[in-house]
Amino acid sequence: MEKLQEELIREVKSIFSGHLESQAFRKTPERFAILEEIYKRSDHFDAEALYIHMKNQNYRVSRATVYNTLELLVNCDLVKKHQFGKNLAQYEKSYGYKQHDHLICVDCGKVLEFCDPRIQSIKDTMGDLLKFNILHHSLNLYGHCHGACEKSKAAMAVK
Amino acid sequence: MEKLQEELIREVKSIFSGHLESQAFRKTPERFAILEEIYKRSDHFDAEALYIHMKNQNYRVSRATVYNTLELLVNCDLVKKHQFGKNLAQYEKSYGYKQHDHLICVDCGKVLEFCDPRIQSIKDTMGDLLKFNILHHSLNLYGHCHGACEKSKAAMAVK
DNA sequence: TTGTGTGCAAAAGCTTTGCATGTTG
DNA sequence: CAACATGCAAAGCTTTTGCACACAA
After folding, report:
1. Which one of 1.10.10.10, 1.20.190.20, 3.40.50.300, 3.40.50.2300 gives the CATH number of domain B1-97?
2. A128 vs A13, A116, A131, B1, B106, CA distance in Å?
């Protein structure tokens, strides 16, 4: 597990490095540190949480750099950005993970992931039909997690 | 057309009225005025645009009331709230329209609507599989509108 | 050395809240 | 008349920007 994570981190750093080079962007230690922390972290996080996390690790970074780097990482597909219905962007690492969508509990905010091939067919059909060159999509399902959290228990009971 | 719109507005006001009553919320003129303006307007708008629109019609309303009323209308399914990738909630009237999803041009922000029955199957399958009681969903496809706008023309040319 | 990237703090943009006043039930 | 809704302005929160300094190329 340790080994695999280290290798993954080396791999994404090399991809990021190539991307920065190709765009003539500079390879700063902050950018690589942020990438590394993201790939050490668990699935979903927001910009502020990442900033606090970096601070706690005693990195000297600013919010500006966190936001700037997140945008670079989104652009080279190493990180995905989501909006789960609130006015707060959520991010997740995306390299090495297969495409997936999200199921969000409206009661406790828990996020589950799922894959369904039918979404690809929808994209193909609609891109074709409406003459769009589709780049990406976002599919979120919202509901109660079947009594797994307190609020959902209450909601299901009312039903 | 005129007739139909008037009838629609009467209908949604009656639904809203019933909803307010059932929750013991007050029937204020502001709430109905906001509902009416929304149903007279075109498809997608944000809270600020609606506020400005109300002001221009010489209504005396505040942003607080606009936001408050929008939330009430979302709760009784007369209005839908969307986040098209930016940190700005977009709203649209939803009564009498069949369920649809959105295709957004990443270049010009244009929004098209589409329907696809496969999304319902995905919801059914996943709700079942992951033990979620699914209430609603949001599916957005992002891409270039095939050269219909200036920026998309450029993007397609590069390709 | 040169100009891009950074940290810091202030500003901006959307949304919510507090308070005094007005109005519904 | 009592409680809730409103208007207004201020505060809150996430994200962006301006500026002087640092550092990658």
Report:
1. 1.10.10.10
2. 36, 20, 5, 32, 17
